[in-house]
Amino acid sequence: xxxxxxxxxxxxxxxxxxxxxxxxxxxxxxESDETFDLSGVNFLWNARVRMAPMVPAKVTxxxxxxxxxxxxxxxxxxxxxxxxxxDTDKGxxxxxxxxxxxxxxxxxxxxxxxxxxxxAGALSATFDDGRTQVSVEFELNEEKRTVARRAPDRxxxxxxxxxxxx
Length: 166
Description:
Number of strands: 12
Largest sheet: 6 strands, antiparallel
Order of helices and strands: EEEEEEHEEEEEE
Radius of gyration: 17 Å
Low-confidence stretches: none
Structural class: mainly beta
Strand content: over 45%
Number of domains: 1
């Protein structure tokens, strides 16, 4: 890492993959754009997915200015899912923290994020903005590249309720 503060604008990713909205749902093709910067764990993910023939949906997921949110819209007008609140803040902050390796220079002086080596040779990252505190552990391979991320209790929405899930 370079010495001193690091200045960097936003990072942008385009993703293509499959997603499902419940463990028993079929996988559906999605395309998304995600932006994030070096200001803590902020991110904004916009995905497009076809729920059925002629039924497009948009999923917006993010953590911005200390608040997490997830919204799904069908046909641009029907909102079958909208989540906000402390559990959503925690889950989205964990996602933003887990995605630190995709950001440029992620191990630098990132506001509200502290890093610590674990006895097992992993890295533990903690985000604490005074309102939301979350931690994620990063498993590293011999080349010190991230190969896995773990969190003991990320809230996951099941139906309309958050369930703590490793």
